[in-house]
Amino acid sequence: MIAEVGHYALVLALALALIQSVVPLIGARARDGTLMAVAEPAALAQFGFVALSFVMLVSCYVASDFSVRNVFENSHSAMPLIYKFTSTWGNHEGSMLLWVLILSLFGALVAAFANNIPRSLKATVLAVQAWIAATFDLFILVTSNPFLRFAPAPLEGRDLNPILQDLGLAIHPPLLYLGYVGFSISFSFAVAALIEGRIDAAWARWVRPWLLTAWMCLTVGIAMGSYWAYYELGWGGWWFWDPVENASLMPWLVGTALLHSAVVMEKREALKIWTILLSILTFSLSLIGTFLVRSGVLTSVHAFASDPLRGIFILAILVLFIGGGLTLFAWRAPLLRQGGLFAPVSREGALVLNNLLLTTACASVFVGTLYPLVLEAITGEKISVGAPFFNATFGPLFAALLVVVPFGPLLAWKRGDLLGVAQRLSGSFLVALIGLAAAFVLEGKPLLGPFGVGLALFVITGAITDICERIGLLRAPLATAMRRAAGLPRSAWGTAFAHLGLGITLLGIVGETQWGAERIVSVKPGDKVAIRNYDVTFDRTFNRTGPNYTELASAFTVRRHGEVIGTMEPSKRNFAARGTATSESALMARGVSQLYLSLGEINPDGSAVIRLYYKPLVLLIWLGGVVMFFGGGLSLSDRRLRVGVPRPARAKAAALAPAE
Amino acid sequence: MRNRIERARVVSSPPRALSNLPPQAAWCFVLVWLALMVVQSAVAVQPDEILKDPALESRARALSRELRCMVCQNQSIDDSDAPLARDLRLLVRERLTSGDSDSQVVDFLVARYGEFVLLKPRFAWHNAVLWFTPVVALVAGAVAMLVAIKRRRVASAGAAPLSPDEEQRLAEVIDQAP
Predict the structure, then answer these.
(1) What's the ipTM?
(2) How many CB atoms within 10 Å of residue A412?
(3) How far does A263 lie from chain B, in Å, by closest CA?
(4) By residue range, what is the domain housing residue B104?
C-alpha cells in the first residue's frame, strides 16, 4: 500500500506540474491575474506530493519491504538504520526521485518567498520550473519507477553496495543535487526573461540569492565528495579527474562565472546577455552532469544502448532543455538592451577576465571528458584522457585565474588604476615572495611547490588586503577602522572569505601533492616503519564484528620522536550479503596534516602489506571549501540580497527599508 | 584465524572486467570508480616491485602515473590493483632497468597496446580538437571580449559623460529605489 501511495502521489505531482507549466504562462501573456495565481498553489502542492512520494519510498526502505524491487536490489534487513535510510538515494531510481524532490522544493520556495518580483515574471519562472519538473516526473514514471513491486517477495534484500554504507552517502548526494538543481532557478529566470523580452539590473538581484545557495551547496558538496573518496578509496587521492567528478566540476566552474557576471549586471547593468547565456549553460551542464552519471554512457558507449528507452529519454531531455534554451537565447537575446560601459582595466574588466578564464577552464574539462566518447562513437578509435591531460590544460588556466583574483575586488568600477592596485597589493607580493623563498629553502624542489605556496599566500593575503583597504586599517584610527568593518556590507566580507577559501584550498593542494611522503612496505608484527618525524609499529591483527560485516583489523602504534601519540587501526571489511570486501583506511590528523594508513594484502604468516602516507596540509583542501561556503553564507545574509530570499519576516523588513 | 585471512584474500581479489559491476553501483560523482574499488584492495604498487635504485624507481612511478590500466576505468597503473596493471608496472621497470629512456618505454607500450594506454593523449593532429579547444576558446574569448568593449565604447563616445554632481544625484536616486 505504501509503495502505491508513493507511486500515485508522483502521478499527481506530474499532473500538477503539467497544469503549472501551461496555465500561468497563458496568464502572464494575457495579463490575467487569476490564471497567473495558479502558479503558487500548484508549485506548493506539487512539492507536497513529491515529498509524500519520497517519504513513502523512504518508509519502504526503512521497513525493508522487499516486495518493492528497488528496495530488494539496494537494501538488506541487517543494515544499520541510517544506511537503510540513505540507501533510498543510493541507486538510480531513488536518486532521481531525490532530484525531483529538490527541484520541487526550490519551486515551492520561489512560490512562497519570492514576493518582490513582478507577477508575470514570477508566473513565467514557475511555469518554466514546472516544464523541468514535468519532464523529470515523466522520466521517473516511464523509465525509472522505484515503486514497482514484484512477486513472490524475497525474504532478504541484495544489500547496498558496501562502499556506499558510509555517512558520505547521507551528505554528499543531497548537497550535490541542491547545487545542480538550484541552478535550475537561474535557468528558469533566464528563460522567463527571454520570454518577457525584458531584463534589467533587478533581475540579477532576484536571481542572486538562489544562485548563491546553489553555488554554496555545490561547493561544499564537491568538497565532501572529494573527502569521502579520499578516506574511502585507500590510496590517498582526493581528485582523480574522473568523468563523474568532472561532471560536478563543470557546473561549478560556470556557476562561479555566473555568480561573478551577475554582480556586474546588478551593479553596472553590463554583461546582461552574457549573464543570461551563462545561466542557461550552467543548468545545461548540471543536466549533462546528472546524465553523464545516470545514463551509463561513461562506462562505455555501448552501455548506453543496454537500456535504450532510458538512454533515448535522457537524450531527448538534454536536447529539449539545452537546445531549446539556446535557441530561445539566439532568437530573443538581440531584443535585450545592453547596459553600462567600462574600460578594459576596471572591476568589470577583471570580472570579465574571471569569466573568460573560468569558462575556458570549463571548456577544457568538457572537451577532455567528452572527446574520448565522441571519438569512439565516430571512429571507433579508443583513447584515454586522464589526470595528466587535465593537469596540463586546466592547471595553467586556473593558476592564471588565481593571479587575477586579488586584483579584482581592489579595482574601481568603470575605470581602474592597475598600478595603484598593484601598490596596494605590495604587502601581499611581499608575503608571497617570503613564502616562496621559505618553501624553497625548507622543501626545495620541485619548483612547482614554492611557486604554488607563493600563489596561495598571494590569494590569501589579497583577500585580507581587500578588507583592510575597505576599512582603512593602518590609515585611519583603529576605532574608526573597526566601526567601518562592522558597517561593511556582508557581501564584501563574503567575497573576501570566498577568495580566502580558494587560497586555503590551493595551499592544501600544494602541500599534499608536492611534499607528501609515501612508504609501501611489507611488515610483520613488531616491525617499525618511519615516515618524516613519525614511526608506526605494527602490533597485531585481530577480528571484529560490525552490524552487517566482519572485519580483519590491524593495530598500529604511532610515535613521534619516540613518544606514543596514538594508535591507528586500518581494516578489511567483509560484507557477507554481497560477498564483497572493502578496505577501511585509518587517518590521524596532526594539525591540518594527516597520517594515512591503508592495508593491502594480509598474508597467512601474519605479515601485511601497508601503504603509509604523510600528507602535509591536506585538510586545508576541504577546509578551504568550507570557508568558501561560509563566505557564500555571509553574502547571502547581506540585507541588500534579502529581496526574495527565503527568509519571510526579515525579508519584508529589508524590502521596505531603503537599500544602502 | 588462518581461515578468515584466506577468505579475505579470496574475496578481495580484483575483477577481470568492468562488466562484473552491479549496475546500480554507478552512483554519482565518486561512485563509478568507488564501485571498482569495492572489489580491489587498497595497495597498488607492491613492495616487491620497488626497484633498488631510487632514481630509476621514481622515474618508474612518474611513468606509471601517465599510463592507463586498460581494464580499469580511468585509473593509472600506479593506482590500480588489477593484475594487468601489475604486469605493466613490472614491464615498465624491466625496460627502465635495461636502459630504455622514458620516451622509449612509452613508445614501446603504445606500439603494443595502442594509444589507449596513454592517459595524456599524444599532441598530434588527430587529437587537435582535444588539445586546441582550450587555446582556441581562450584566444577567441579574449578577442571577442576586447572587440565588444571597444566597439561599445566607440559607439557611445558621442554621449557626454555625467558630471560628478549628476553621478552623485543619480546614485542617490538609485539608492532610494526599493
Answers:
(1) 0.81
(2) 14
(3) 16
(4) 2-120
